[in-house]
Amino acid sequence: MTTSVTTDLEAAVEDAAAYLYVWALKDIPQDLRDALADAATKETSVPGQRVLQTILKNVQIADTDKNLVCQDTGIAVYTCRVGEHFSLHPARIYAALKTGTERATIEHPLRSNAVHTITRENTGPNTGYRLPIVHWEFIPDWDGLDVKCVPKGSGSENMSFLKMCVPADGVKGIKQFVLESIVGAGGKPCPPGIVGVGIGGSADYAMYLAKEAIARPVGTRNPDPHVAKLEEELFELLNETGIGPMGLGGDVTVLQCHIEHADTHMTLNPVAVNYQCWAARRATAHVNAAGEVDYDREF
Amino acid sequence: MPPVKWTTTVSSKRLTFPADEAAIRELRAGDEVLVDGHIIGIRDRTQMRIFDEGVEPPLDLNGAFLLHTAPGVRKLGPGKYEKVCIGTTTSARMVRFTEGLGRDYGVRAICGKGGLPDEAIEPMQRLGMVYFAIVGGAAALETTQIEEIEEVYWEELMPECLWKFRVKDFGPLTVGIDAHGNSLFHDVQEQAQEKLKELFARL
């Protein structure tokens, strides 16, 4: 590959990142819109119904006014699937994602949320040391790049929980921890949203998996039948808690429960919970080897 | 199992801020409220400056409606901003400022999302304050209800400045904690904890 092609690819990825961040913030996916509309048909509490009708109205106004659905532009979290023959090195992909995030923040403009974690001084255009956050997957025998952008708001991210259950706690321990976490969170993470659960692996990997789980299309099921069954059971149980929309009491506490898993050590049973608010924003760019980009909500 | 009993009595009210104690004491947990007039945007760092650093707020908060927000704005000129996207943040982080706001500055209403913990109930009852629950994340709608950003103080805390907004038909808000010792959040949490015991027994 020549340098010029590499530079063009970097520009393509940078443009894609700038577009994805703003698009994700303004236009929530159809699967999420359907889930919210469905929730409104099920809710019987008066404050809960008031919340859901306001949410549906808000999504419409964001469309017509071309405004952000929520003011919290979050921290930009990207997941990249890099084909082994994609000719832009991940170091340059990261640089492009960072510059794209900054451009979106300045050009729109978007609220800048990023601060130094001790001094709390704002670092500028939603980037900083180790920001944006990028997760990597590498795909053999492929020459493309997929980039998923999930702007993650703080209201829901603050409601993240980890417990190192022991094997003797079993699946029952997993269920109890998820239930008490979501009840304890109450209205703070902007319910009804998507409960992401990561099980197995290690402490850090379980939380990563929980974050992956919230970014799936709403209502998709884990291909492992044991895990899919647990998703269904937890989804039903969570909606029996009565927390309701915005924690004001009601029938609909969550839109979905998604679980990602990894095999683990024989004496480990980690459970991580990551919440995604009702404005579960996500958008994806598919970049081919020539630098052409398609946008959708897949992956 | 008997169905959970939701709040069924609903009263829709309209209030203009700044407001007096009598108007606040008329509100009951669960009421739906629309707000007009002036509201003040504050957030974590704004209140840390007032209460932890002892800096007097540069505007009168008597009778005020405080909104937990850090708005997205576009700068037009010195001290002048236009709205881009204004929404509301999680209130629970800022509960420790509740009593001081009412006692020292005469604040009448705090509005945010997700509720305030139970420690806010007693001071709100004693001082004649309410907590309004807004729909978190519904910022596109909220932005249309804010007519103008009239004043901004402490710009160096951007975006966690002190903001003065003029609003019309702001809401719908739900009275989450009233000035009579009632909290929807307390009640929902109490019911949910009971429900958890039952769910755990079934696992």
Description:
The complex is a heterodimer of chains A (299) and B (203). With 299 residues, chain A is an alpha+beta fold. Chain A has two domains: 3-26 and 69-152 and 281-296, 2-Layer Sandwich (Dihydrodipicolinate Reductase, domain 2), CATH 3.30.360; 155-276, no CATH class. Chain A has helices spanning 3-26, 30-42, 46-65, 90-107, 154-157, 170-185, 203-214, 225-238; strands at 75-83, 133-139, 145-152, 160-165, 193-200, 254-262, 269-276, 283-287, 293-296. Chain A has a five-stranded mixed β-sheet with strand order 2-1-3-8-9. A four-stranded mixed β-sheet of chain A has the order 4-7-5-6. In chain A, strand 1, helix 4 and strand 2 form a beta-alpha-beta unit. In chain A, helix 1 (3-26) packs across helix 4 (90-107) and helix 6 runs parallel beside helix 8 (225-238). With 203 residues, chain B is of the alpha/beta class. Chain B has a single domain, classed as Fe-S hydro-lyase, tartrate dehydratase beta-type, catalytic domain (fumarase), CATH 3.20.130. Chain B is 27% helix and 32% strand. Chain B has a five-stranded mixed beta barrel with strand order 2-3-6-7-9. Chain B has a two-stranded antiparallel ribbon with strand order 4-5. In chain B, helix 4 (121-127) links the parallel strand 6 (109-112) and strand 7 (130-133). Chain B is globular and about 60 Å long. The model of chain B has no long low-confidence stretch (mean pLDDT 94). Classes of the chains: A alpha+beta (299), B alpha/beta (203). Chains A and B meet through helix 3 and helix 6 of A and strand 4, helix 5, strand 9 and helix 6 of B.
